[in-house]
Amino acid sequence: MTKSTLFDRLNQELESFGKKAQAALDEGKLQIELLRLRRRQDRAARDLGMLVHRRERGGETDARRFDAFLMRLDDFQADVSRLEKQIVEARRGGGSAGTTPAPVGVVVDSTESTGAV
């Protein structure tokens, strides 16, 4: 085996390793984004539960806020499904994981971060 052949083989192995490492990194980014999204979804569900509790105990609630929480949870579920599909594709080597995950199109309002209902 000549030096040239040896270096070519080494270069191929390094490229292969680099591609595998990049794929693992991309999948990790998707997993982190999924965890963040699920945390936000849990927060919204908790806030909706507090709103329902308040309403059931005779407190004053705004129907628009109730509907807004339901729509927000629907949006979160759609985004979770999208990310889960991207993760499955990344594991199969579908190539779509090589790009940065699309930003989640959910607007955060002040009640989400404070837990206020």
What does this protein look like?
This protein is an all-alpha fold. It has one domain. The chain contains 3 helices and no strands. The radius of gyration is 22 Å and the shape is rod-shaped.
Q: Could you list some keywords that capture this structure?
A:
mainly alpha, about 120 residues, 3 helices
Write the topology of this structure.
Elements: H1 3-56, H2 63-92, H3 110-114
Helix pairs in contact: 1-2
Summarize the structure.
The chain is mainly α. 76% of the residues lie in helices and 0% in strands. The protein has one domain (3-93).
- What can be said about the biggest beta sheet? none
Tell me, briefly, the overall form: rod-shaped
Could you give the count of β-strands?
Answer: 0
What gap, in angstroms, lies between the N and C termini?
Answer: 72 Å
Multimeric organization: single chain
Total number of domains: 1
* Percent helix range: over 70%
